[in-house]
Each structure stands twice: as structure tokens, then as C-alpha cells.
């Protein structure tokens, strides 16, 4: 351990040294003097040397005796040898000629003569404290360096961190200070610096490797979430697919490497895009421990749910829980809101019907039933309650519990409901011995009876009162009240249809089954199929018809938003129509469609109908705007005509192609139109209908598709013989392109003229160079590809298929998104000129506009907005999904 001062003196000056020692000690200086530090029997000379080495300053007490002492002079020389700063102190007058040369060059501090001890001490302290810190570091580093040397210069004895930084600064500052650094100081600091660099490099390598592994782990996590989202999407679990994709996207945005991984970025865009297009489930309400068996919406928008434990929960539509009621001692079978929204009725397997206020206050318990009570409902005017029990007994009650009517309706009983005018009761049962549906007046007189194949599990009247919906067994039916005629709704074989209901405006019906399917019936067709991964027991519409709620054996209420999140717009078609032809006007504001009734329709971009053009027979296979947007061509496969009209409907020309015509294409300058059909001929026409040229293809083939190149010099035609023919405008066959396994239904040149895309009955899309060399085959459709189109910037391909999907592809073959919204074959797809919208048409009476050109940030915004109520209802899920991207939290 170092000391501030080493004092060298003659024993005859001990009295002075004691006084000096005492004064310095009081001033908190640490001092080494031989009387203090050398124990008996210790090698005193070695210890004196050690004391000198550990002292920061060396005081030599000058007196005639000390300058004559060989021991004292030896100590001086040893101090000089070790670079110690000497401070000579005169305690007795001594001739200057007696002083050693080493001391003569120093300024001597005198404690003799007229100088007071205190004054001399002050000068001594000034000398001691001058560069004391420098001297202290000098001593400390020298000792450390010597220790390093004694230990074979092992790196563990070198300086590190702040110690090294202090030594480096000391070395820089020492140029104007004494004692000067010795070689051992310099060697020691240099060795420490070398070792520090090696350690830094080693730690950097370890850090870089750890960072690399962490980054790979993070990337693997994102890829795994994307794969999970894709798998959930393919299984129809779109909400879960969106949630997984959102988690992946939120995490991705929080990683430093995100901007350098375009492949992962594109994968995220793909999973979020397709999930956002298809998702309709918007919230999950968790509050039941057992299966939910009854649901009801009040007219003011409150939602009630009853479960197998006899618990009723009342919710706001945003998912917040208003009230929990311990309602029954056994399973609740049915619940219903009063028309005033302030009362609630419930029925249970505890053989009771109960009437409640919505705040949970019990008004009355109706105990006249002797078996499980199934259905319960209020009359439309709110003055009565109807119920049916497991013995088939139907009861009508006043709200005070008075029984108005009680009669045996069936051998057993499942459900009951009032007609909208309040004059009839419908009841039904589904048992092997009784599968009847019955209509009663309020006096208990049977008015009509219908035997249903599978009986009745649940009933619902259409708001107009002319139709009654029923489910039982695997059947779902609509029954006309006047003649009891039946319309069967599509159901899954072997699955039990569990519930059915109408929207309040009567525009839609929803029905569910035990396999977790929830179907939306609208315009005489199933327009949507929602799926959850457990059996559904009950379903109902919100009063405004925007939400559908389902609940089942997992005790979770699922809310489905029927209008989606705004990324798609469905044009209102017409019953029985199938759309085939589609074209965007170059100005991007008008869309043309052709249907199966020979009709061409013009729409604005928002889906509002503008004009209708009639005159053609059968299916209008193709429609196309001229390049200047002033004319519209349409062709009918049935009568082989091409109509060219101005947009006000004035006919420019009517071309008879003398055969079935399947495709047409305007030349880029708008002066010509090419047509192909049920022969091997490509025909080039002027706009006025004059035939200019014919190209003869292979014998015994059809030409299904045709397209001009962007420069107008070439024409591509897709054939029934699995080939694509490339022609120049003069009719010279440039190349026959082979590669497809079946008929080529669609060809399209890219706007930049670099590529050709084809869609085929072999379920593939192929990308070719402009001269017909295969670049990439895109696989993913499970049925015919009927149309393939480039985006205006030539970077994306859209394909429409008989598998009811549209797919978006990058040119490298990677899938951007699968767009699900059609319920039948998709016949055509087109990009808007600004690339922001994609429109598809199909045989399902649908025209769908998709907002597709979205980056990750916007997709995350859409996802967050869609999931916001779910996050409010399930805050822990919000924490998990947004933990790495707080910007996404609101």
C-alpha cells in the first residue's frame, strides 16, 4: 500500500523528525518512517527499500549527520533510482559543500534560523502537494508494473477499464510533470492497451455472434408467426390469422434489422393483407365457464348470454360486461329481451321461467312447468310471455306470472316464437317420434301443421311474418306461412343445425351448426360462411344488422362484423346474375361489366350503377374500354357479335364474327380490335367493323384469349391446344410457346412490354419473357385459372380462378395474398389505372373492389383498428401483441 511521504533521516535528528511526523500526521498525510514500520527481526534494509518504493514523495532531512551517513545517502540514491520526487528539508545548518550533488540541485526547505516551524511546514506542504496526484499514480503504476513483471507479464495483472483510462490520461499529462514516466510505466500501459484491444475485439466478436443469433431467433419468430397465420387462414380461422399476423408485424416493426429484410416484410404484407380481406370476426367475449346456450340482443343494443351453469351475462356491444346474474339452478335453454329493452326473460332446465330487470333484479319466477323449459319469448307488444317445456306443454303468461293459456302442443317441445303481428305462435320439436312444426292462435287452436324430415330445434319468424325459418337435425329450411312450401338452405351433411335467426330488417338470415359453421343467407344464396373451431349453440343479429353474434360449447361469444373493415366494396348486383366481363376505363372512374343475361353495365368506382346496355344474347364474355376511354367494346359468346359503343350508349358498330367469340383486345392506338373464338382464326377489325386481317392458327384448336402488346406490334393468343401463339401485326407467326398442360384461358402483356402472363386450365399461372421464354410458374390455385392480369406498373400479377379466389403474385413467384370473398368461380380481374384498386367479378353475382396496394404500416393500422375492441375486452392479448411496438397501442 502506498504512502504519501517517506522520511529519510539520521538518528540524531529523531526529535525534529518526531515533531515533523506529528505535524504531518495531524494534516492527514500518510508517512513511512523506519521507527513505525519495521518490526523486530525483519530485514530492515529490504523494508526501507520497500517503504521508498511505496512512498509518493521522498523527504530527506538534511543535517551534518545525515549527509555524512552512508545509509542515508544509500536511501537517497535508491529513491532517485526509482524516480521518486525528492524534497530536501534542512533541520540543522549544514555546509553546501557537504551536500551530495543529487540534493544540491533541489530547492531546500529550511526549518533553521529565524524561520518559524509553522512557516517552514507550510512551504513543505506546498512542495509535497505539488503534483501529488501525479506522484501517487506514478507510484501506483510502478508497483503494478513490477508486480506484472514478477508474474511473467500475465495479462490478469494488466490494467482494464477505468484504471487503464486513468493511466492513459496520466501518461499524456506527464510531459510537463515530474517524476517522468519510466520505460516500465510505458511498457506496462502499452501492454494493457494491447490486451484491452484484444479483449474488446473478443467481446465484439462474442457480441456480434450473440446479436446474429438473437437476430436469427427474432427472424425465426416472425417467420413462425407468419406460417401460423397462413395455416390459420387456410383453415378458415381468419380472426386468429389476423391476430398472429398483427403480432408478427408489431414485433417486426420493433426490430433494428427490419428495414434490411424485404422478404420477411413481403411475407408480413401477404399474411396481413389476406387476413384483413377475409376477417369478419371482430371480438371475443370471455365471461362464461360453461357452454353458452342462449343469446338475445335488446333493441337498444345490449347483448344477453346464458350458459349451462345458469349464469346470465349482459354486455355492451363493445364487449364490456354490464351485469352478471346468477339466474338459475340449472342450464339456461333460452333468453329473450322485452321490446322495451328493460326486461329479460330466461328459461331453464330447472323447470322455471324467470323475469328480470336488466340490472339483475328478479321480478318474478314462473313455476307452473313440470319439466325442463325450452324456448321462451315475448309477444311483439310486450304484454305476454310464451314458453314450451320438455313435455310439449305450451304456456302463455302475463308479465305478473298469471297463466293465460296452457295446452299440450307436442309429445315433447323444443322452441316457440310469436309471429311479428302477435297473432300466431309457432312451436316445434325434433324427436324420433315427433318432428312437427305447428302454428297456433293465442287461444291454443291449431291453425297449421307441417311434418319436417328432421324436426325443429330452433324457430325464427321473418319480420314481415310471411316466412318461418327452422333448423332441426342437419336441415335448415325456410317455410312460406301461406302454403307451407319449403326452401331448403345449404347445410353440411352429418352436422346438426343448431340455430337460425333473421336480421331485424329481414334482409338476411343466419344459421349455425355443430361443426362451427355460421352461414349468412342473403339474396337467395349463402353469401358468407363464418367458421369457429367449436360447435355453435346460438346466434343472433344486432338491431342494426351490422353484427352477428355466435356462441357455443367453449363459452365464448364471437362477434362478426358483416361489412368488413373497408378494404373491400361489394357492388350490389342483381339476383340470378353471373358476371364474366370486366374492364376499367383508363380514367379510373368507370367500370364496365358483362353478365350472363347479355347485359353490359357501367358503374362508378364506388359501385353505383351508371348505365345499362342491352342487345346482346347470352353471356357477355368480355368487355373492354378503348385506350382513349371514349368507347366500349363487348362480345357475346352465344351470338358471336362485338358491340362497340360510345359511353352514352350510341352504337358505333356491330361486328358479326360469324362464330362464338370469347375474347377481344383493342390495339394501343385504339384503331383496331382483335377477336378470337371457337375456331382457329384471329381476326383484326377496324372500329367501324371492317375486317382487316385474319391469322390462321393450328387446325382443330380454339383460341380462348387474345392480347395486343403494349407497342401494338405483336399479338398473343392462348389456345385450346395448350399453346400460346405469338404473331406480329402482319400475321407472321413469331413463335409457338409451349409449357401449359391444358387450354390457355388468358394472356396479357405487361405495360412495360417486358413480359407476358398466361392463365390456364391446368390451375397454373405462367410468366414469360416478351419473346416467349418461360420465367416462372406460379402454383397455388386448386382449379382453372380463368384470367391473369398485370398491374399498371408491371410488378404484380392478379389471377382469378374457378376455386373462388383471386391471388396476387410478385414476379418472383411469391404470393402476396389470397383474396377470398366470392362464393363461385371468379371469371375476371382487373387493376385500376392508379393500381390502388383491384376489381373481380364472378358467377356468384358479385363484383368486389379490393383495396390491395397497401404497405405494412397501413395494414397494421387496419389490423389494430379491427382488433381494438378485442384488445379492450382482452387486455392481456393487447400487451402480448404490441409489446415490441408501442406505436401501435392506443
Automatic annotation (TrEMBL):
| Signal peptide boundaries | none
Which residues lie in coiled coils?
193-220
Superkingdom of this protein's organism: Bacteria
Q: Give the matching Pfam families.
A: TIR_2, WD40
Domain TIR as annotated: residue spans: 1-132
The protein here is known as TIR domain-containing protein
Entry's SMART domains?
TIR (SM00255), WD40 (SM00320)
**PANTHER family with a match to the protein in the record:** TRANSCRIPTION INITIATION FACTOR TFIID (PTHR19879), TRANSCRIPTION INITIATION FACTOR TFIID SUBUNIT 5 (PTHR19879:SF9)
Q: Organism, per UniProt?
A: Leptolyngbya subtilissima DQ-A4
Q: At which residues are the WD repeats?
A: 285-318, 325-359, 366-400, 529-570, 582-604, 664-688, 737-769, 778-812, 819-851
Q: Which UniProt keywords apply?
A: Coiled coil, Repeat, WD repeat
Amino acid at each position: 500500500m502506498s504512502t504519501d511521504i517517506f522520511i529519510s533521516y539520521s538518528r540524531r535528528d529523531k526529535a525534529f523528525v518526531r515533531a515533523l511526523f506529528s505535524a504531518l500526521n495531524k494534516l492527514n498525510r500518510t508517512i513511512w518512517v523506519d521507527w513505525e514500520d519495521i518490526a523486530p527481526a525483519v530485514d530492515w534494509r529490504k523494508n526501507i527499500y520497500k517503504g521508498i518504493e511505496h512512498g509518493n514523495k521522498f523527504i530527506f532531512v538534511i543535517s551534518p549527520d545525515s549527509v555524512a551517513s552512508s545509509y542515508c545517502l544509500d536511501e537517497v540514491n535508491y529513491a532517485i533510482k526509482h524516480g521518486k520526487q525528492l524534497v530536501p528539508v534542512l533541520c540543522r545548518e549544514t555546509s553546501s559543500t557537504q551536500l551530495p550533488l543529487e540534493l544540491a540541485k533541489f530547492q531546500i526547505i529550511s526549518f533553521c534560523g529565524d524561520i518559524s516551524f509553522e512557516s517552514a511546514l507550510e512551504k513543505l506542504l506546498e512542495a509535497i502537494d505539488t503534483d501529488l496526484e501525479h506522484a501517487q499514480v506514478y507510484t501506483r503504476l510502478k508497483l503494478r508494473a513490477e508486480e506484472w513483471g514478477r508474474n511473467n507479464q500475465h495479462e490478469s495483472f494488466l490494467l482494464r477499464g477505468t484504471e487503464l483510462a486513468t493511466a492513459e490520461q496520466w501518461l499524456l499529462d506527464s510531459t510537463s510533470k515530474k517524476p517522468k514516466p519510466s520505460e516500465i510505466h510505458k511498457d506496462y500501459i502499452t501492454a494493457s492497451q494491447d490486451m484491452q484491444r484484444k479483449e474488446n475485439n473478443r467481446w465484439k466478436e462474442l457480441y456480434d455472434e450473440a446479436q446474429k443469433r438473437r437476430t436469427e431467433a427474432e427472424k425465426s419468430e416472425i417467420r413462425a408467426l407468419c406460417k401460423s397465420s397462413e395455416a390459420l387462414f387456410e383453415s378458415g380461422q381468419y380472426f386468429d390469422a389476423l391476430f398472429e399476423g398483427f403480432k408478427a408485424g408489431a414485433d417486426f416493426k420493433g426490430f433494428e434489422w427490419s428495414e434490411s429484410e424485404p422478404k420477411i416484410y413481403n411475407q408480413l404484407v401477404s399474411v396481413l393483407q389476406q387476413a384483413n380481406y377475409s376477417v369478419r370476426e371482430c371480438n371475443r367475449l370471455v365471461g362464461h365457464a360453461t357452454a353458452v346456450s342462449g343469446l338475445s340482443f335488446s333493441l337498444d343494443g345490449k347483448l344477453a348470454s346464458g350458459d349451462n351453469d345458469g349464469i346470465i351475462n349482459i354486455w355492451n356491444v363493445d364487449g364490456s360486461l354490464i351485469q352478471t346474474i346468477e339466474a338459475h339452478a340449472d342450464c339456461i335453454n333460452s333468453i329473450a329481451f322485452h321490446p322495451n329493452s328493460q326486461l329479460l326473460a330466461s328459461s331453464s332446465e330447472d323447470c322455471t321461467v324467470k323475469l328480470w330487470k336488466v340490472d339483475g333484479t328478479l321480478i318474478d319466477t314462473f313455476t307452473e312447468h313440470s319439466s325442463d323449459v325450452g324456448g321462451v319469448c315475448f309477444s311483439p307488444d310486450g304484454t305476454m310471455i310464451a314458453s314450451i317445456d320438455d313435455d310439449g306443454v305450451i304456456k302463455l303468461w302475463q308479465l305478473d306470472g298469471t297463466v293465460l293459456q296452457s295446452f299440450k302442443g307436442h309429445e315433447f317441445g323444443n322452441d316457440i316464437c310469436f309471429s311479428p303481428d302477435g297473432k300466431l305462435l309457432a312451436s316445434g320439436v325434433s324427436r324420433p317420434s315427433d318432428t312437427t312444426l305447428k302454428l297456433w292462435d293465442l287461444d291454443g287452436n291449431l291453425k297449421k301443421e307441417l311434418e319436417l324430415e328432421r324436426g325443429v330445434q330452433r324457430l325464427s319468424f321473418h319480420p314481415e311474418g310471411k316466412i318461418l325459418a327452422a333448423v332441426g337435425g342437419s336441415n335448415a329450411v325456410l317455410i312460406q306461412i301461406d302454403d307451407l312450401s319449403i326452401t331448403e338452405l345449404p347445410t353440411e351433411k352429418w352436422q346438426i343445425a343448431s340455430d337460425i335467426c333473421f336480421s331485424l330488417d329481414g334482409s338476411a338470415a343466419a344459421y349455425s351448426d355443430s361443426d362451427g359453421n355460421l352461414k349468412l343467407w342473403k339474396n337467395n344464396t349463402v353469401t358468407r360462411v363464418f367458421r369457429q373451431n367449436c360447435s355453435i349453440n346460438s346466434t343472433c343479429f344486432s338491431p342494426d344488422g351490422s353484427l352477428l353474434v355466435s356462441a357455443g360449447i367453449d363459452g365464448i361469444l364471437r362477434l362478426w362484423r358483416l361489412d368488413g373493415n373497408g378494404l373491400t366494396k361489394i357492388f350490389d348486383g342483381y339476383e340470378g346474375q353471373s358476371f364474366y366481363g370486366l374492364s376499367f376505363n383508363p380514367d379510373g372512374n368507370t367500370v364496365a361489366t358483362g353478365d350472363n343475361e347479355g347485359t353490359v353495365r357501367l358503374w362508378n368506382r364506388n359501385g353505383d350503377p351508371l348505365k345499362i346496355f342491352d342487345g346482346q344474347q347470352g353471356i357477355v364474355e368480355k368487355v373492354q374500354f378503348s385506350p382513349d376511354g371514349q368507347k366500349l367494346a363487348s362480345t357475346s359468346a352465344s351470338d358471336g357479335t362485338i358491340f362497340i359503343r360510345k359511353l352514352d350508349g350510341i352504337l358505333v358498330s356491330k361486328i358479326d364474327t360469324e362464330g362464338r367469340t370469347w375474347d377481344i383486345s383493342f390495339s394501343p392506338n385504339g384503331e383496331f380490335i382483335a377477336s378470337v373464338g371457337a375456331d382457329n382464326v384471329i381476326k383484326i377489325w377496324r372500329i367501324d367493323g371492317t375486317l382487316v386481317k385474319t391469322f390462321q392458327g393450328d387446325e382443330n384448336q380454339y383460341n380462348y384469349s387474345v392480347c395486343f402488346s403494349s407497342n401494338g406490334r405483336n399479338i398473343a393468343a392462348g389456345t385450346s391446344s395448350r399453346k400460346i401463339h405469338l404473331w406480329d401485326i402482319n400475321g407472321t407467326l413469331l413463335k409457338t410457346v409451349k409449357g401449359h398442360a391444358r387450354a390457355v384461358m388468358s394472356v396479357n402483356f405487361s405495360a412495360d412490354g417486358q413480359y407476358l402472363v398466361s392463365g390456364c386450365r391446368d390451375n397454373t399461372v405462367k410468366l414469360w419473357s416478351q419473346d416467349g421464354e418461360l420465367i416462372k410458374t406460379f402454383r397455388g390455385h386448386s382449379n382453372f385459372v380463368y384470367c391473369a392480369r398485370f398491374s399498371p406498373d408491371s410488378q404484380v400479377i392478379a389471377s382469378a380462378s374457378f376455386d373462388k379466389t383471386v391471388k396476387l403474385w410478385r414476379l418472383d413467384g411469391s404470393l402476396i395474398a389470397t383474396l377470398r370473398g366470392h362464393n363461385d368461380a371468379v371469371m375476371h380481374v382487373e387493376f385500376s389505372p392508379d393500381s390502388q384498386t383491384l376489381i373481380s367479378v364472378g358467377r356468384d353475382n358479385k363484383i368486389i373492389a379490393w383495396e390491395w396496394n397497401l404497405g405494412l404500416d397501413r395494414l397494421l393500422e387496419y389490423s389494430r383498428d379491427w382488433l381494438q375492441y378485442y384488445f379492450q375486452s382482452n387486455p392481456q392479448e393487447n400487451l402480448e401483441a404490441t409489446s415490441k411496438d408501442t406505436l401501435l397501442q392506443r
